[in-house]
Amino acid sequence: MDTNTLYVADLVLKRGGKPVLHGVSLNIQAGAVTALLGANGAGKSSLVLAIAGAIELSSGDIKHKNQPLSGLRPEQIRKRGVAIVPEGHQVLSELSVLDNLRAAGSACSTRKLQSEIARVLDIFPELNAKLNTRGGDLSGGQKQMVSISQALIAAPQFLLIDELSLGLAPAVVKRLAEVVRQIAESGVGVLLIEQFTNIALGLAQHAYVMEHGRIVFSGSSQQLRDDPSILHSAYLA
C-alpha cells in the first residue's frame, strides 16, 4: 500500500435514515490535485465530511500509511494528516484573523504555532493587513483565505476543499486556484470540489464524477475535457 496515498474504499453512509453514499471508493495522491465533480446533491460534501470524521459511516474503510482512519474523531484524523476546508468560507466570526489562526493551531506548541502562522501568511500575504480584523467583517474571498490557512496550520498531507470558489469574484478565484496548485506542488494531496469544472480540470491530474452517491467516472482530467458528455450526463441526472 502506497504511503503517499489516502485510500477510501466502499464508503456507505446514511443521513436521517436515507442512503447518501453507496459504496464510494477513491484514492487521493499526495503532491497532486484530484477533482471531485458532480451536481448538487450528488453526495460530494457528505463524502468529504465522512472522510474528515465529521459524520459517522455505516461501513467502509479509509486508510493512510496502512492505518485505518474510519471511526476516528475529527481531531484524531486531523492529527494523522487529513484536513478539511468546509463549504461556505467558515471562520470564527467574533475572533480576529490572528485568533482564528491561533485557534486552528491550538494543539501546536507556541514555537510551532508561530512558525505555522508565519508560513500561511507567506502563502496569503493579503491577510497580514487583516490580522486584527474580526472574521465576520472580512470579504468572502478573505474568509476563504482564512479557512484554507486554518486547515494548513496543521501541516496536513491531504487537504479536502469543498467548493473553493462558491460566491467569489473571478479575480479571487484565480488567486485561490494558484494557491491550490502551489499547495499540491509542495507535496500535499488535494481533493478539490469545485463548481467551475474548467477550473477543477485545469488544476487536477485525476478526476472523479459522482452521481446520486456513486462514483460514475474515474480517470484523467484530460478524458473529461475530451469527452464533456460524461459530465453533462452527470449534471443532468
From TrEMBL:
Keyword terms: Amino-acid transport, ATP-binding, Cell membrane, Membrane, Nucleotide-binding, Transport
Pfam families according to UniProt: ABC_tran
Domain of life: Bacteria
Limits of the ABC transporter domain: 6-237
GO MF annotation, one: ATP binding
SUPFAM superfamilies to which the protein is assigned, alphabetical: P-loop containing nucleoside triphosphate hydrolases
Similarity comment: Belongs to the ABC transporter superfamily.
Protein's name in the database: ABC transporter ATP-binding protein
Annotated organism of origin: Iodobacter arcticus
